[in-house]
Each structure stands twice: as C-alpha cells, then as structure tokens.
Specification:
6-stranded antiparallel β-sheet; 14 strands; about 375 residues; about 40% helix; about 20% strand; 2 domains; 8-stranded mixed β-sheet; single chain; alpha/beta; TATA-Binding Protein; globular; Rossmann fold
Length: about 375
C-alpha cells in the first residue's frame, strides 16, 4: 500500500485494507506474469487516476476492466439513471437498480467496490459538459469515453487536448463499433477527425437501430487494451489507428490516425481562441437538449434544485413519485415524466419538443421558483 493512500485513510480503514491485501495478495498474479506489464507496470497502474465518462454500456465494461486491473482511482461520471432497457447490455446493473431508478454512476460504483476494495471508486451524478469538466478532470491521467452523443464527446476531446490528457474514444451502434486512442501531441483531436458540428441529426443510434452486447464488449476491449498500454508505461505499443468493426459480418478496418492540425485551437498550436470562447460560454441559462431516439428532452435550469422541497409541490399537482437520494421521478397525470436531479437538470420524458419540455418545467416548478 503506497504512503499517499495511507495518509488519507482512517486507522480502521488501514487495518481492513492490510487484511484484504494479505487475503487477496495474488489478485494480479496473472497480470504480473504478462511480460509487458510485470511488476513495474502494475505499480504504474496502481498510481493511475482514470475518468470514465458515461457508465452505460461501454462505460460499465470499461469500469470493470480498470477496477479489476487495479487502477488507483476510477472516477465515474454519468447524468442518467438505470431503466429496464439498459439491462440487456449494461453489465453492471440489475433489476433492482432499474426498479429504484438508481443513478448509473452510483449503482456502478456500488458494484465496483465489491470487485476490488483496493481501488478508490468515485461516483459523480452530473451532466458532463464544458461547464462541469474542470473538476472531473482534476488530477486525471487518462479519460475513457463511454458517452452516447457527439456533443459530449467533442467537449470532452476539447478539454482533454487543452490539458494534455489522453482520450480513448469508443462508440457502438447495432453490431458496429469504432475506437481510437487520441493523444495530445501525437494525434489529431476528435473535432478534427469528425468535424466541428456536434449534431447527431440523421446518424444511427442505439435507439434507432438497436445494439447487441457483443459489439459493446468488442469495442470496450479495444479501449481497455489501449488504456492498459498507456497506464502501464507501454506507450510505444499504442496502436495509433482508428479501428472500425462489424462483428456480425465480421469486417475490421484500420486507418492510421493523422497528427494534429496546426490551425486547430485544440490539437494544433493556436490555442488563444479557446479560452475566449470558454469565457463567453460559461453563462448559466435555461437550455434544452433533445435526446435522440428516446422521446426525451434534458432541460438544464442553470441553478440547483432542492428535491425535498419540490416533492410536496409535485404531489400536490397529482404526480406519483419515485424517490431516491439522488433524484426524484414524477409521473404526471397525462403520462409524461419528469426526472429531477439536484444539479438543476430535468429529464422530460414523453416529448421530443424542446420548447414544450421547457414550458412544462416552468409550469410545474413555478410555485417553487417563485
């Protein structure tokens, strides 16, 4: 056990950790026998801090790989909660999580802690965006992409490249997937590879064409392998390619990743414009984002919500509530649902009209907001 970890622990926690270390001393024996990792690589893994953005299908698998491999800190960030449709492919969740509308980051962390008590698991129920990424990236050595939309991925890529943090990209739909390790100073950023637009309009998604779990696991394996190379010090072994694969017909293609563009404010040399843009974009406001294929809109109110104060108000308006420490789900009499988070987000389910979603939030919450 390293000294830095000991300084942050209570004596009882130290005793329990030492006991566990004695009982599970051979936990990494097979990984240690793998030549490229060995003892030195395992020590590097133990000192590593990893952020996994999204703990759904890809994120759940990635979180297991990093936890079982012995990364020092695994930080999870996800805005969503568990629903029955997740259970077919999101391996960390079960029916109780879906019944209780458990936040994905919290439900995942609960199970990961039982897998490896020597790894520090951090759960953040948060909408990952350019406004919230700063604290999430603090002290992080590597970021693993488990997100499901281009806007979040581009914001993540922009922030990682500005801070010099590698981003292991992955995406899956139907039986197809893709992955690439995007390394500041070595490769182009995601914005240069897929374009400036963050819109997903017209693109296939899991909600429109479905997804099968073997495709998820295939891409997660590609991502996890690159993560292990980077974190264990085998950086010259990084693949350096963009891989696409269809596991149903089994076609695999590789494309060599280009270097950074000199004209790009993220992966090139001109970074002066990025800071100005960030300052202008940090103003709080009511925003709405349609979640593709889910008949849902996420409304961001720009201020925290006191959920305990809102519950009597919603019940008085005829709503049936599902409550846990992280969110309140309100079933409206007309069949729509509001899922409220304390950070000021509301998922409006039952509409894909952003204007209608905002109006519904304003109407239902008006007495609370005064």
């Amino acid at each position: 056990m390293d000294n830095q970890a000991l300084r942050t622990m209570h004596p009882i926690e130290i005793f329990e950790a030492v006991q566990d270390e004695a009982a599970f001393g051979d936990r990494y024996s097979r990984q240690l026998r793998f030549g490229p990792i060995g003892s030195d690589g395992q020590k590097r893994l133990r000192a590593a801090r990893v952020l996994i953005v999204g703990t759904g299908a890809l994120g759940a698998s990635l979180a297991q790989h990093m936890t079982r491999a012995g990364a020092g800190v695994v930080r999870l960030a996800d805005r969503d909660y568990v629903e029955p449709s997740n259970l077919q492919r999101q391996m960390l969740f079960d029916e109780d999580d879906a019944r209780n509308a458990a936040p994905k980051a919290v439900a995942a962390a609960r199970k990961l802690k039982r897998m490896n008590g020597g790894v520090r698991i951090e759960a953040h129920v948060v909408d990952v965006s350019k406004r919230t990424l700063g604290p999430l990236l603090d002290g992080i050595d590597l970021v693993l992409d488990g997100t499901d939309n281009a806007a979040t991925r581009l914001a993540l890529s922009d922030a990682c490249f500005r801070l010099g943090i590698p981003l292991i990209y992955g995406g899956v739909t139907a039986s197809e997937g893709m992955s690439a390790a995007l390394i500041p100073g070595r490769t182009a950023c995601l914005r240069c590879l897929i374009g400036d637009s963050a819109a997903d309009d017209g693109a296939d998604t899991c909600d429109t064409v479905g997804v099968i779990s073997p495709a998820v696991e295939f891409v997660a394996a590609l991502q996890a392998a690159e993560a292990l190379k980077w974190l264990s010090g085998n950086r010259d072994a990084m693949r350096g390619t963009w891989v696409t694969a269809d596991i149903w017909s089994f076609r695999v293609k590789e494309m060599k990743l280009p270097g950074g563009s000199p004209r790009c404010s993220c992966c090139g040399s001109d970074t002066s414009k990025a800071g100005d843009q960030r300052r202008h974009d940090d103003r709080p406001a009511v925003e709405a984002a349609v979640l593709c294929g889910r008949d849902s809109v996420q409304v961001t109110l720009g201020e925290p919500l006191a959920l305990d104060m809102l519950r009597p108000l919603l019940e008085a308006q005829g709503c049936s509530l599902t409550v846990n420490p992280y969110l309140t789900k309100a079933e409206l009499p007309d069949g729509k649902r509001l899922v409220l988070f304390s950070d000021g987000r509301v998922l409006v389910q039952g509409t894909s009209d952003a204007g209608e979603a905002i109006q519904l939030c304003m109407t239902m919450l008006q007495p609370y907001k005064g």
